[in-house]
């Protein structure tokens, strides 16, 4: 509801971009859950490489299917693209994957849910953008949802807690259930 107040049109209808963002939100949720599960089984660097390889492959398929691919890239863009690919994608994805070993997918999702609030804050601070009352109410609802989720006890189920415990043991080099299974 908070995100709807923050981003939908005045008549509460969604633009095409809003629907794409909604689809992206479901993809992010699936990604967070999958990373939460696989960090217990796969080394961080390997998991990061697999994630990037999957995105590169999917992007190449979509790129080639949607028109004639062109490699006519201005030289000035190459450095920016390299920085974006290495630092803003690979390094940050590695750090995110590593850090997610120490928390639950629920907490990760809660952290991610602050993105529109911080986007609005920095839009205000850096670009002098102003939010109306409805958008501010949306920010408030997003933050309130986070507080309720945290104050009301963990939303994580038993399975999520078990994954977190195994991830923590593995990060400390202790054997977990997956390593016990592989030696039996």
Describe this protein with a few key phrases:
9 helices, globular, mainly alpha, single chain
Architecture overview:
The protein is mainly alpha-helical. The protein folds into two domains: 1-23 and 102-176, no CATH class; 41-58 and 78-100, no CATH class. It is built from nine helices and no strands. Helix 2 runs antiparallel to helix 5 and helix 3 packs across helix 4 (75-100). It is globular and about 50 Å long. It starts with a helix and ends with a helix. Mean pLDDT is 81; it is low at 176-184.
List the helices and strands and how they pair.
Elements: H1 2-7, H2 16-38, H3 44-65, H4 75-100, H5 105-112, H6 115-127, H7 133-151, H8 158-171, H9 177-183
Short description:
The protein has 184 residues and is mainly α. The protein has helices at 2-7, 16-38, 44-65, 75-100, 105-112, 115-127, 133-151, 158-171, 177-183.
- Work out the helicity level: over 70%
Number of domains: 2
Mean pLDDT: 81
Distance between the termini: 49 Å
| Alpha plus pi helix count | 9
Largest sheet: none
Give me the secondary-structure category.
mainly alpha
Radius of gyration (CA) equals 20 Å
Secondary-structure element pattern, one letter each: HHHHHHHHH
Number of strands: 0
Looking at the structure, what is the overall shape? Answer: globular
Low-confidence stretches: 176-184
Strand fraction: under 5%
